[in-house]
Each structure stands twice: as structure tokens, then as C-alpha cells.
């Protein structure tokens, strides 16, 4: 399948964006925003790294801290610093009434995330979270087909995010890998889970889980499973979506990255469960780069139009679910939403 031109510039290249943090992922923000024609500033504490980018992009302003950059007339900021710094940096930017995108996780606590969401609303700015998979063309295609009824009633989703490494010392496998899949489940299902159960194993470092299986039960009898591990012999990033009329499979770690639709399932005929084994269909989709799509979307919303994807509420919900999963993982219990939480889930926003 021919790839689309994911490097096409945004419709308004007059928008100016400053990237905070030029580390491993921040470098990708810098490169992509430059290709989009919107890179205007870089904040980086390391003087050598700052000099490197100043030499590479001589027309882009560089700063040693966000406090030096905030006085410039940038339309928005992206924050790609260590997660423990997100709250302080985001709060500072929001109080100066600038739109911003913060890499996942939005903060390390749901309470702080809720505070940032409230603060953004009070100051009239857009707060977006870097849940990259919500801009993955395959995920968006699957969601659209589910909404059109391609697989009938949504029943079950499972996601495997497995690899050998990279082992983290600052967080466990749940916080390192699972936010991607939780954000996708929220995107597709559109409700908070009513129960979260998580179990895992500790092998390499005391008190730091290396693998976990999380079961999420949603309203309308929808169930999700998330299996994550950095102690796996091969890389696998696979999502399977089961419905009453068919099934989707997508493996991002495969070479072809195809979306497959299986016309398979179980039909009840005269009281007996009969296997339905229809054909397999390869679903075409646009092969644009997710980071490019995400940053284009953010840039286009620095005009103040409301964020509809990966917004602050999405960031809050992912952290709320992570906290429930963490508590379950550490205590061996299950975390159920209270009646007030359930009413909030089923009531329209």
C-alpha cells in the first residue's frame, strides 16, 4: 500500500510552537514540527544539546528554561520532559495562557491531572496529552468501522504490548507500557471501567513489576484485557477487537501492519453454539505517521478551537484507571467504581 505524504505542512504555517525538552522523545517533536514548518523555539537545560540544535536550526530560538521562553510570542508549547516535571511545567505554561501538549503521562497523579484540566479551563487554553495511538491511522480506522457496525456489538478487546526491554528503574511495566492501551480502550469504548483487576510478576527489581495482566470491565458487558511485559522473547504489539458479527486484529509490530477483519464468531442456532468461520478481509487504511498527525492536530488547535482527541479529560481518565490498576496490582484486590463514579460514567458529558 502506498504511504501517504505524512510530512505535508499544516494549513497555517504561521503558527509558532516551542518544544520543551530535547531528549529522546523531544527530538522527535523538534524534527516533526520543523518538517511541518511550525518549529519556533526549543527549551533545553543541557547547554551542549542546546548548542547542537542551535547549530542545526539557526532560525529557531533556544532557551535554557521555560521561564526564559515564556515571554516570547509562541502560539503553543509541547512538553517532552521527564514525567515528574510535567505538572510544574504545564501549570506554569497554562498560567501564562498558552496552549500546550504534554507527553504522556499528563502527570504522575490523577489529582494533579484534574487540577491542570481545571486550570486550563479557567485560563481558556487547550491542554492536550501525547496519547500517540489515538492518532494512529489504524486505530482510528478500527474505531470508525466499529461505529459503522462492522463487527456488530462490541464485546471484548485485548492488547499485548510485549518486548525484551527496555527495563525501567523509575516505574513499573504497568506505568511504562499500559497507558498506550488504556488510552486506546477509552477512545474506542468511550466509558470508564466499572472494575479494574491487575496481577503481575516481580523478577528483576524488588517491588517493581516486570509483567502484568489487567482486566477492565466496562458498562454494557464490554471487557478489556491488557498484557504488558518487558521480559518477553520477541516484540509484539497486537490488538484484537471482538464483536457479535466479526473480529479485528492489528499488529503494529508486524512488517505489513495490516488490519485484518475476520468474519468469525459463534451463532446460536436452535439453542446450540455453532461456529461461524467466514472469510478474512484485509482492511485498507491511510499509512500516515502518528506523531505527524498528532502534532498537526495540536498546531491546528492553537487557534483556540476545542480539542476533541487526547484532551485533558482523556489524560485524567487514563491516570484514574492506572491508579486503580496499580492499587489492585500491589494489594491483590479489585478496584470498583463507586455509585457516584458509575453515575458519572453513564451520564453524558
In words, what does this structure look like?
By secondary structure, the chain is an alpha/beta fold. The chain folds into 2 domains: 114 residues, Rossmann fold (3-Layer(aba) Sandwich); 187 residues, Dihydrodipicolinate Reductase, domain 2, CATH 3.30.360.10. It is 33% helix and 30% strand. A 9-stranded mixed sheet has the order 14-13-12-11-7-10-9-8-15. Strands 3-2-1-4-5-6 form a 6-stranded parallel sheet, with helices on both faces. A hairpin with a 7-residue loop joins β12 and β13. α1 crosses α8, α4 runs parallel beside α5 and α5 packs antiparallel against α9.
Mean pLDDT: 92
How many runs of DSSP E, i.e. beta strands? Answer: 15
- DSSP summary: helix tally: 10
Strand percent estimate: 25-35%
Strands in their spatial order, largest beta sheet: 14-13-12-11-7-10-9-8-15
Q: CATH superfamily assignment of the largest domain?
A: Dihydrodipicolinate Reductase, domain 2
Class by alpha and beta content: alpha/beta
Overall helicity? 25-40%
Shape: globular
Our count of domains comes out at 2
CATH class of the largest domain: Alpha Beta
Distance between the termini: 39 Å
Q: Give the biggest beta sheet.
A: 9 strands, mixed
CATH architecture of the largest domain: 2-Layer Sandwich
Rounded Rg: 21 Å
The helix/strand order is EHEHEHEHEHEHEHEEEEEEEHHEH
Which fold name is given in CATH as the topology of the largest domain?
Answer: Dihydrodipicolinate Reductase, domain 2
Which blocks of ≥5 consecutive residues have pLDDT under 50?
A: 1-7, 342-349
Task: Give a short summary of the structure.
With 349 residues, the chain is an alpha/beta fold. It folds into two domains: 114 residues, NAD(P)-binding Rossmann-like Domain (Rossmann fold); 187 residues, Dihydrodipicolinate Reductase, domain 2.
